[in-house]
Amino acid sequence: MGLFSFGKKDKKPVCACQSNCSMTETKKIENLANSNCVIKVLGTGCQSCHTLLENTKTAVSNMNISADVEYIQDMAQIAGYGVMSVPALVINEKPVVMGKVLKVSEVEDLLKKAGF
């Protein structure tokens, strides 16, 4: 199965994170594993942001990925990524999920689809 799957009903492409991101956003995930892995969770300090941070750390640990997971709370930095809703997940400086708390398994699936 490739990076994209198609829904039965409307035949529209579905993104790797399964949250109906646009194809433009989804293509940013491709080939992220070709360099040193930098994973960031962007958030404001709320419970949802902390949950995504912990789930991301657990996924990285489960997959034995050699990467640090950073937590960015500075709104200027968050805006610099073009992120309009938090929490957000950034892999190698590219936002891949915005406004959604992913489960550990969803983060793992996303990292696998990114080539890790």
Descriptive overview:
The protein is α+β, with helices and mostly antiparallel strands. The protein is 32% helix and 20% strand. The protein is built from four helices and six strands; from the N terminus they run E-E-H-E-H-E-H-E-E-H. The protein has helices spanning 23-27, 47-62, 75-80, 104-113; strands spanning 5-6, 13-14, 38-42, 68-72, 88-91, 94-98. The protein has a four-stranded mixed beta sheet with strand order 4-3-5-6. A two-stranded antiparallel sheet has the order 1-2. Strand 5 and strand 6 form a beta hairpin. Helix 2 (47-62) crosses helix 4. Residues 1-19, 22-26 and 30-34 have low confidence and may be disordered.
Helix content: 25-40%
What is the rounded Rg?
A: 14 Å
Indicate the structural class: alpha+beta
Major sheet size, sense and barrel closure:
4 strands, mixed
State the domain count. Answer: 1
Number-wise, the strands total 6
| Percent strand | 15-25%
Mean pLDDT: 79
How would the global form be characterised?
globular
CATH class: Alpha Beta
- The CATH architecture assignment turns out to be 3-Layer(aba) Sandwich
Poorly predicted tracts of residues: 1-19, 22-26, 30-34
Q: Which strand order spans the largest sheet, edge to edge or round the barrel?
A: 4-3-5-6
What's the name of the CATH homologous superfamily? Glutaredoxin
Q: Give the CA-CA distance, first to last residue.
A: 16 Å
One letter per element, helices H and strands E, the order comes to: EEHEHEHEEH
State the helix count.
Answer: 4
CATH domain fold name:
Glutaredoxin
